[in-house]
């Protein structure tokens, strides 16, 4: 299943694959080497100055049969191949890290060095697991940098970590209460009564 935070990168990777197919490019190219189009060694033709968005590229590639089938994404195991591995891991891991930070912070009134160490280890392990799921994982050093960046921001900038655990719990309770009220409006007693009425009507017909 594609995580909601990686869907844009998966889409971009599919469009990139379509572009590769449109010019019969090297299937093994990982995007790590590029050529400067302004270099005099290359005969470059600037056809347009229009910047295409992904939907425009997708429409053109799909119309000419170059877009990969959905099965391509499964065979690539969600790997954006140099296009967004760093960003995809960072975005997915940071959202998970906020939840983990909240869980750890509720231990004490104020964060302790042990809390910070536990958070760092948890984020490092999670980033490593996300990275290992790629066909071509990032080097361990890059994955470690991502983990350190997320840990550093949470422990030095995030109110979730800096404020007292009492305030953190109060904020969490407020959010959960608001979600509960919203859910109650959508599927509370009124909808329950409606379901019971429909069920009773069906029983009467029987």
UniProtKB/TrEMBL annotation:
InterPro entries: Plasmid_replicase_bac. This is Replication initiation protein. It comes from Cutibacterium equinum. The lineage of its organism: Bacteria, Bacillati, Actinomycetota, Actinomycetes, Propionibacteriales.
């Amino acid at each position: 299943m594609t995580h909601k935070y990686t869907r844009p990168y998966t889409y971009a990777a599919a469009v990139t694959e379509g572009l590769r197919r449109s010019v019969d490019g090297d299937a093994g190219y990982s995007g790590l080497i590029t050529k400067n189009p302004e270099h005099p060694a290359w005969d470059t033709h600037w056809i347009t100055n229009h910047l295409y968005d992904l939907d425009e590229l997708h429409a053109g590639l799909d119309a000419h049969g170059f877009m990969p089938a959905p099965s391509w994404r499964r065979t690539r195991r969600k790997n954006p191949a140099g296009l967004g591995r760093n960003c995809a891991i960072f975005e997915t891991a940071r959202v998970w890290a906020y939840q983990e930070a909240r869980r750890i912070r509720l231990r004490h009134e104020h964060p302790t060095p042990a809390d910070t160490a536990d958070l760092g280890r948890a984020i490092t392990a999670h980033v490593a697991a996300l990275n290992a799921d790629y066909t071509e994982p990032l080097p361990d050093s890059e994955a470690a940098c991502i983990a350190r960046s997320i840990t550093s921001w949470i422990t030095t900038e995030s109110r979730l970590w800096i404020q007292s655990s009492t305030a953190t719990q109060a904020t969490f309770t407020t959010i959960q209460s608001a979600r509960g009220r919203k859910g109650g409006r959508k599927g509370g007693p009124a909808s329950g009564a409606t379901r019971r009425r429909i069920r009773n009507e069906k029983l009467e017909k029987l």
